[in-house]
Design goal:
- This protein is an alpha/beta fold.
- It has a single domain, classed as Vaccinia Virus protein VP39 (Rossmann fold, 3-Layer(aba) Sandwich), CATH 3.40.50.
- The chain has 9 helices and 11 strands.
- Strands 4-7-6-5-8-9-11-10 form an 8-stranded mixed beta sheet, sandwiched between helices.
- Helix 3 crosses helix 4.
- It starts with a helix and ends with a strand.
């Protein structure tokens, strides 16, 4: 089945979740080329079966090369422990899941497969290259779109679960689109997240050689003081062929402070150390 046909099938069963970015009214039908809202605003589907809810140019440094490196590392299993923890926090029944800043789609794909594809998943990102890659999975129960975090193209009370994996947050929008008894699950780095990569890029004694999550954590807990907090930490042996991908997959390698001569032999393993925040509404 072509990507655009998969997308139409998903939209026909889930159109009630989306809202028009122009008038904020409901979409009422799936046309040959896209979707149409109550006030007759049209939004065309791309050939890859995605929707673009942003109609202005977006400058993103997350290019295809970086996103493919990220996909290689995630497929290696870098996030498996994190996504397993997320899966354990989601009710066993079928859920509607929103992935905030889904990138190239692998984490959502892994989560849906982990839960035996009983759920309906929507992933969005500001990066068009990321969304184009995400459609490669051809998931029948997932849909990907380009959208703005601060103006989510979804109706109120549309999602049972919101997953925010290392992405920025817009809590007022999260509160709007999540259903009663829904779960917001946000993952933020702890101090030793990718610590070996930080030491390789910046040395061991600079400000950027570790990560301080207190500002992000404090803001989250201010908004959701009754949240459950759990920590996930593990270390993976890193094959030589993936070392370059690890360097390229994060924004850490950007900037003037990065060491010019990288000794990849030092990158024999990598540590995942994160804080998982779970809020029930």
């Amino acid at each position: 089945m072509k990507k655009i046909e998969i997308a139409k099938k998903f939209l026909n069963s889930s159109l009630e979740m989306f809202r028009c970015p122009i008038c904020h009214d409901n979409f009422i039908k799936v046309s040959d080329n896209g979707i149409v809202c109550f006030n007759n605003h049209n939004l065309d589907l791309s050939k890859k079966g995605s929707l673009y809810f942003i109609n202005h140019k977006v400058n993103s440094e997350y290019d295809k090369k970086m996103l493919l490196s990220r996909r290689n590392i995630i497929n290696f299993g870098l996030f498996n422990g994190i996504i397993n923890e997320i899966s354990n926090k989601i009710p066993n029944s079928s859920q509607s899941i929103l992935d905030i800043g889904c990138g190239e789609g692998t984490p959502l794909n892994y989560l849906l497969n982990k839960r035996n594809n009983i759920d309906k998943g929507i992933g969005f990102d500001i990066s068009k290259p990321g969304i184009n890659l995400a459609t490669d999975y051809n998931d029948l129960n997932a849909f990907y779109c380009v959208a703005d975090l601060t103006q989510l193209p979804f109706l109120d009370d549309s999602f049972d679960v919101i997953v925010d994996l290392f992405s920025p947050s817009a809590y007022s929008e999260f509160n709007r689109v999540i259903r009663k008894n829904g779960h917001l699950i946000k993952v933020i780095p702890n101090a030793n997240y990718l610590i070996e990569l930080r030491h390789l890029l910046y040395g061991e004694h600079k400000d950027r050689s570790s990560y301080d999550n207190h500002k992000v954590l404090d803001l989250y807990m201010k908004n959701y003081p009754n949240s459950e907090v759990s920590n996930v930490k593990y270390t993976l042996e890193l094959p030589d062929e993936l070392k370059k991908d690890l360097v390229l997959m994060t924004p850490m390698h950007w900037g003037k402070e990065v060491n010019k001569d990288l000794n990849m032999d030092k990158l024999s393993q990598i540590t995942v150390d994160v804080c998982v925040l779970d809020t029930k509404f």
